[in-house]
Amino acid sequence: MFLWQYLSLLLLITVHVCKAQDCDEFTDLDLSHAIIGTSLKTRLLLYTRENATCGKLLSHTNLTANPKLNLSRPTTFVIHGYRPTGSPPAWLDKTVQLLLEREDLNLIVVDWNYGAANVNYFKAVENTHKAADNLTAFIELMRKEGVSLSSIHMIGVSLGAHISGFVGANLMGDIGRITALDPAGPQFTGTGPDERLDSKDAQFVDVLHTDIDSLGFREPLGHIDFYANGGTDQPGCPKTIFSGGSYFKCDHQRSVLLYLDSVNQTCTIKAFPCASYKDFLDGNCLSCERFGAAGCPVFGHDVIRWKDVLLKLRQTKSFFTTNGVSPFCMTNYRVEVVIWNEDVRWGYITVKLHGNDGEAVATIDHTAAKFQKFTETRLFAHFNKDIQLVKKVSLTFSTGNVFKPKYKLRILRVRLTHLEREERPLCRYDILLKENKEVTFRPILCEESNF
């Protein structure tokens, strides 16, 4: 009996070892490789729902070598960017998992770590063209086997975004979709469309910008370009160099985390088309009429639903704000204030919403608002969470002037309108706000006849 148990255990261990050996892993290098420099080697790792945690290395010349590659399914390529330390991307496993949970597809991770791992960034940039040529040849092989290029989606991160663009250009823009997550800026800024990602590289190109003042690309590149928090400093990311490496890469990498939240449908982020981030924050871009009944497009994986109208508009810049951690989505309200002070007041408003599901806060302080007697001041408030049933509202008025006398703001009416849900606005009348003193009240539903 003991011998049988021993043999069973040995067999089980052997099976697990063999199974592990059958899986192909993303190339794991270290800083020494990057210092020495690596020559390009492109590996294609296939994941499907049948092998969601076990990558299978694909042949570049024989598609039938791996029976798990089902060409009747759509195919998504995930392409990483510059790897200065040689380590695999921390987000890779989660990306594979979430994409396969959303859709039954061939998910191919493009592993060009040999070529991306190099302290010489310029060499990695040079390798993007070679990696794109390699990938183009593989997709051409797929097309010869009857695959429609429309069924191909490429998700490129940083340098990977431009690789996607080069592949798309090689294939005359016939690829179905390119999603670019904070496309790399250095060495690409100021170049022409042939030397970077461009909206003509696929039938639909959606782009997210999160680090336009450092590692990312500033200008629009796609049919729709999303600028999270204006595309610069992301909430929750370090503000000083003393935070180490995360200071340099946090804003850039936030693009992947935001996109994964959209794949996971953690929450929905509505983006507002606007010419500038300032106009967006000022609440000057809240109209979504150009998008018809569907309303403003949502950021991320599901923006493909707006493809037809976005193609007609040709190029759309859109903005949204986020929290510092997942769930990243914020809840947007329009806040309209009418005062009856005789003198003009300048200042900032903080709004709190209270309900059974907690408290949400929005501080509108990007610029001082002008409050003038009997004149409606419109503010755009971004709350850190959505309160389903608002029972109380708190308001705080401040001027930011420490040494000047404290002012009062006599509010004739305040109206709060939820911008994501179709529901009656909330109102309150005749409120006296003393500077830096929070006032809490129960709102009432606004009436159409109210001024």
UniProtKB/TrEMBL annotation:
Residues 1-20 form the signal peptide. Keywords: Calcium, Cell membrane, Disulfide bond, Glycoprotein, Hydrolase, Lipid degradation, Lipid metabolism, Membrane, Metal-binding, Secreted, Signal. The active site is at S158 (nucleophile), D182 (charge relay system), H252 (charge relay system). The keyword Signal applies. It catalyses: 1-hexadecanoyl-2-(9Z-octadecenoyl)-sn-glycero-3-phosphate + H2O = 2-(9Z-octadecenoyl)-sn-glycero-3-phosphate + hexadecanoate + H(+). The keyword Aminoacyl-tRNA synthetase does not apply. It is found in: Cell membrane; Secreted. Residues 38-328 form the Lipase domain. Ca(2+) binds at R196, D198, D201. It holds the Pfam family Lipase. GO terms for biological process: lipid catabolic process; phosphatidic acid biosynthetic process. Belongs to the AB hydrolase superfamily. Lipase family. Hydrolyzes specifically phosphatidic acid (PA) to produce 2-acyl lysophosphatidic acid (LPA; a potent bioactive lipid mediator) and fatty acid. Does not hydrolyze other phospholipids, like phosphatidylserine (PS), phosphatidylcholine (PC) and phosphatidylethanolamine (PE) or triacylglycerol (TG). This is Lipase member H-like. It comes from Xyrichtys novacula (Pearly razorfish).
